Amino acid sequence: MRHLCSKGRTGGEKRRYGREHQAPHPRRRGTRIALFALAGLVLVGAGLGGVAYWKLNGNIHSVDISGQLGTARPPASTGGAFNVLVLGSDSRSGANGGLAGGDTGDTARSDTAMVVHVNQAHTAASVVSIPRDTLVPRPACTGTDGKQVAAVRSAMFNSAYEVGGPACAVKTAEQLTGMRMDHFVEVDFAGFAALIDAIGGVDVTTTVPIDDRDSGLHLDAGTHHLGGDRALAFVRTRHGVGDGSDLGRIELQKEMVKAMLGQVGSLGLASNPVAMWKLGDKLTNSLTTDSDLASVSALVGMAQTIKKIGPDQLTMVTLPVAYAVSDPNRVVPKAADAQQPWAALRGDLAVPQAVLQDQPTNPAQTSPSDAATGTWSGTPSDTPSDGTATPSGGAGASARATTVDGGAE
């Protein structure tokens, strides 16, 4: 990806990414937000190059992932294909505190984790969501205080960000997937809400009522226009709809992606410099990226590279998991099934049909019209000491994958 990007500033490395973990607030809830900003970036990036470049360029924070990890990594992507680790931070600091509904300290975890793979031809992309509570082996990392953090055999995936910041999250993702994360993108609560407001809100439809006091979202069945705060509540909703699982909440995030893509496509940004500036300013203020991607020119370069990828060419799935025997509040990768998407992406292939057909149901849709039906059975899986899962003979998530359809070209 070096041919796509130019170096940006690295002042973001001074930001705090996590301290010793504090006890979570009972109402603390996460969000899957970074992918939405990335989708907006793809759609608007081509027009940002001449719009007050210096201002937008100065908005972007960055971290030197390559410098921190060195050369002990999977080989860099070749032939034009590349991978992006997209994280959403649940930090309660600053403007995020009023939106997060929890503590407002500096502690942060990666409450969203999505691996985005763009194929060699730059004509399609696959997105694999990693549930935040997935137990995985976590490699040794350098902590935010500069001290070494020992490897552990089994830890929640999102803890890597807490103990070692973005670099540790990338290292953990690379160990899990066997792929180089060529780029890194992060957005936080306030950034997502501001981005939704900047595009004028989004329309979502639910066939069942949603009543979730934890996220603060209360919707009757039907179509609703959501501003930034309510859109954030929608992507955070868990207990107010469906079976209350985090896997169901990931499906709501996919629904939001469709809504956002459609709204951005309706703005006519190419002929509306005011809207372009407003969205560009909000977007770049929301981002922390790897240092190679930390400039408007680099972001625009990426957007130009993948401009052929529209909603119909974006496939989104969740990593196949099962509940952990050791803790029903945690999940583990389903040993054989979980390797299928990573093996396919390493070979620059489409996500296998077996994975597409083994996905959670969108809890806001009682009768999905675009895929086979099914439910998350949550059959426990044995969890060996190395943190991997072995089959127990039960099904994990079953139902559908979301291929984003409709919206902008």
If you had to describe this structure to a student in words, what would you say it looks like?
By secondary structure, the chain is α+β, with helices and mostly antiparallel strands. The protein has helices spanning 34-44, 53-59, 65-69, 97-100, 159-177, 189-198, 228-236, 246-265, 273-286, 296-305, 335-346, 353-356; strands spanning 61-63, 82-89, 110-118, 125-129, 135-138, 141-142, 148-149, 152-156, 183-188, 202-206, 210-212, 217-219, 222-226, 288-290, 314-318, 321-324, 327-333, 402-403. The strands form six sheets. The protein has an eight-stranded mixed beta sheet with strand order 1-14-9-2-3-4-15-18, sandwiched between helices. Helix 1 runs parallel beside helix 8 (246-265), helix 1 (34-44) packs antiparallel against helix 9 (273-286) and helix 6 (189-198) packs across helix 7 (228-236). The chain is globular, with a radius of gyration of 19 Å.
